User: Which sequence fits this backbone?
């Protein structure tokens, strides 16, 4: 399971060190793609294949499904962790997520996310304000 929040920096070539706690879960090779809310999604290969199979079952005749799939899959790339524990973030994905120097890796159960430090802190501060309200609504769901 991917959990936690880790602050890192990008080097001049756009490489970032993957938190050591994430490396075992993600594996040496994994998929990185555009995420929601201006972040990047990182999926272990098994999770990516599961997600891909779910998308294959959706009706491609719906324009919003086609649009989402096009952006998700066209932005996806397989990355490999180097000997120093780093990955190279493609320029397209760095641009999508406004990644400059300081980045935050967060664990979200079956995937990890990479955020610009500034965007993450703004998002987290807003979400903190409604955390208890959301928790009350989730009580209605059975886990």
Assistant:
């Amino acid at each position: 399971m991917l959990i936690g929040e880790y602050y890192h920096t990008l080097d001049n070539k756009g490489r970032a060190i993957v938190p050591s706690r994430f490396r075992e879960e993600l594996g040496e090779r994994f998929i990185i793609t555009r995420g929601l809310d201006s972040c990047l999604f990182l999926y272990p290969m098994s999770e990516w294949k599961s997600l891909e199979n779910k998308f294959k079952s959706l009706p491609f005749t719906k324009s919003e499904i086609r649009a989402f799939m096009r952006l998700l899959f066209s932005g996806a790339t397989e990355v490999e962790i180097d000997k120093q524990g780093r990955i190279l973030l493609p320029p397209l994905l760095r641009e999508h997520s406004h990644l400059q120097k300081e980045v935050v890796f967060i664990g979200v159960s079956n995937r990890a996310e990479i955020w610009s430090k500034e965007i993450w802190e703004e998002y987290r501060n807003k979400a903190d304000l409604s955390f208890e309200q959301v928790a009350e609504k989730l009580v209605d769901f059975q886990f």
Summary: The mean pLDDT is 94.
